[in-house]
């Protein structure tokens, strides 16, 4: 049985500007980088990037888990990490696949910018911020809603749709921050505009039944994000009848092995999305996305500009 030398260290990455969503303001991304070394010198890297307000473990819980591990761990111990620690499951399995030489060489995975969706700044700064990424090749843009008054945000979306060339696409992400009435209003506006690819998580996860009903009543698609953040939640929403878009933040969803099995079994409509992790986590997610998804929807990884080194 192979033992892997295990090392880890926490990191902090301040955002250039706080990321405003209806969950509040996010100013520093904290996570853990881990490595596994085998006896013949192979090394695999992984990342633990919690987003507790999405339902993952906290950074403290992940650190406590890492600290109680021995300096050498086995494959069995890696695949026995409980589902209550989904970011740890993802980070350790990423490193294990790399040290075993199972993952694609991550440096080869580089879809062109047209396969990425660019996360625009919040509020009306978006209107001045889409053109530079457009000139870099981005054709998909995401903007946060549910932060300012709806009439102000609708006006900004109409101006954005007017300004962005017709071949571009816009995604709106409410982070569950709308009321039922506002969600209906947004869906009617988007059906009229016709240029919005989907509205992400219009209502909080506990209003699943309302979103399921809405998904049958409007032509603008609805994407679940917070509702399907972990594999347990994702499977539950599928069993409850969701056949709309699933936003998969693989870095916080849990076991890579289990996600592969689920996507092999159920042909779901997916958008792979960043957990605002570092390049280590990003490459581990994009390699998995290329393996298990048709990538027909742009991946939500146009986010590096949110960090100083981005
Ligand atoms: O999905 C994307 O296009 C970019 C990533 C992104 O929007 C998010 C990452 C992490 C937490 C959230 O604030 C936000 C989201 O809700 O999707
Ligand atoms: Mg989202």
Automatic annotation (TrEMBL):
This protein's pathway reads: Cofactor biosynthesis; phylloquinone biosynthesis; Quinol/quinone metabolism; 1,4-dihydroxy-2-naphthoate biosynthesis; 1,4-dihydroxy-2-naphthoate from chorismate: step 4/7
Catalytically driven reaction(s)? (1R,6R)-6-hydroxy-2-succinyl-cyclohexa-2,4-diene-1-carboxylate = 2-succinylbenzoate + H2O
Amino-acid positions noted as binding Mg(2+) in the UniProt annotation, renumbered to this chain: 173, 200, 225
Which biological process annotations from GO are given for this protein? menaquinone biosynthetic process; phylloquinone biosynthetic process
Ranges for domain Mandelate racemase/muconate lactonizing enzyme C-terminal: 123-221
Q: What is its EC number?
A: 4.2.1.113
HAMAP family with a match to the protein in the record: MenC_1
What is the protein name given in its UniProt record? o-succinylbenzoate synthase
Species whose genome carries this gene: Moorena bouillonii PNG
Encoding gene per record: menC
């Amino acid at each position: 049985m192979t033992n892997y030398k295990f090392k880890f260290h926490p990191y902090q990455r301040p955002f250039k500007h706080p990321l405003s969503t209806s969950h509040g303001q996010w100013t520093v991304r904290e996570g853990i980088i881990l490595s596994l070394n085998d006896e013949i010198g192979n090394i695999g890297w992984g990342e633990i990037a919690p987003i507790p307000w999405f339902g993952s473990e906290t950074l403290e819980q992940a650190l406590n888990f890492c600290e109680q591990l021995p300096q050498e761990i086995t494959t069995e111990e890696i695949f026995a990490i409980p589902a209550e620690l989904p970011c740890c499951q993802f980070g350790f399995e990423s490193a294990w696949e790399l040290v075993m030489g199972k993952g694609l060489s991550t440096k080869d995975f580089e879809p062109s910018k047209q396969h990425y969706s660019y996360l625009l700044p919040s509020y009306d700064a978006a209107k001045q911020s889409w053109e530079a990424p457009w000139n870099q090749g981005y054709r998909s843009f995401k903007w946060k809603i549910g932060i300012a008054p709806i009439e102000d945000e609708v006006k900004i979306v109409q101006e954005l749709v007017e300004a962005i060339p017709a071949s571009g696409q816009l995604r709106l992400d409410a982070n569950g921050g709308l009321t039922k009435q506002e969600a209906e209003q947004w869906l009617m506006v988007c059906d009229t505009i016709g240029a919005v690819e989907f509205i992400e998580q219009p209502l909080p996860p506990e209003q699943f039944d309302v979103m399921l009903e809405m998904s049958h009543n409007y032509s603008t698609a609805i994407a679940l994000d917070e509702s399907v953040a972990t594999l347990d939640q994702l499977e539950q929403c599928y069993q409850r009848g969701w056949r709309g878009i699933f936003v998969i933040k693989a870095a916080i969803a849990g076991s890579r092995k289990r996600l592969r099995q689920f996507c092999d079994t159920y042909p779901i409509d997916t958008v792979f999305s960043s957990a605002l992790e570092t390049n280590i986590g990003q490459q581990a997610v994009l390699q998995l996305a290329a393996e298990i998804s048709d990538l027909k929807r742009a991946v939500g990884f146009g986010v590096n500009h949110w960090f100083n080194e981005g």
